[in-house]
Design brief:
Blueprint lengths: L1 E2 L4 E3 L6 H11 L7 E3 L10 H14 L4 E3 L7 H4 L4 H8 L2 H11 L6 E3 L3 E3 L6 H7 L13 H25 L1
Length: about 170
């Protein structure tokens, strides 16, 4: 995904719907502002359903102004443990939870801003992203399976930790 600047880069929301609304009130709504969300929309907070539904709706209505990346909580095996599954089971249905998890399979997990800055788990990972194309045919939007996504996420996070350590030791 290639986003055009200026763009707001937003970290973990984790079901904090009121924080998401506060963010939009402060920075503008997607009709007039651009956003790249880094994933982790669900779990932990009490309003994961409202959070992800509003973001999906904005993505549909303003597709060029909002980018939704996939974080590790957009995996059924993770969000089943950290609250989203229980919220959906109580408030809607298990089938609805499964359908949302199916949508997560199609979400990208990294983005470029102005074709040069990678946002996601690590800055300089273009070579890693190219290697991960083995796991998914990105051209035809084949979903990245949960197992392969978690593997890729682990590789990227490991590289991020290694890189952070190198920068910390150089300063």
């Amino acid at each position: 995904v290639d986003a055009k600047a200026p763009v707001y880069v937003v970290g973990d929301i984790h079901g904090q719907f009121s924080d998401l609304i506060r963010l939009f009130r402060c920075c503008g709504y997607p009709e007039s502002s651009k956003f790249v969300f880094l994933g982790d929309y669900v779990d932990r907070g009490k309003q994961s359903l409202e959070t992800i539904m509003l973001l999906f709706l904005f993505k549909i209505k303003y597709p060029s102004n909002i980018c939704l990346l996939r974080g590790n909580h957009e995996c059924a095996s993770i969000n089943k443990l950290y609250g989203f599954y229980e919220e959906m089971k109580k408030r809607v249905s298990i089938k609805a939870w499964k359908n949302i998890c199916d949508v997560f399979l199609y979400m990208p997990f990294s983005a470029l801003i102005e074709n040069k800055r990678v946002v996601g788990p690590k800055k300089d990972i273009l070579e890693v992203i190219n290697a991960i194309k083995v796991y998914a045919d990105l051209e035809s939007y084949t979903p990245l399976s949960e197992k392969n996504f978690l593997q890729a996420h682990k590789i990227l996070m490991h590289n991020l930790i290694d890189t952070a350590g190198k920068y910390r030791n150089q300063s």
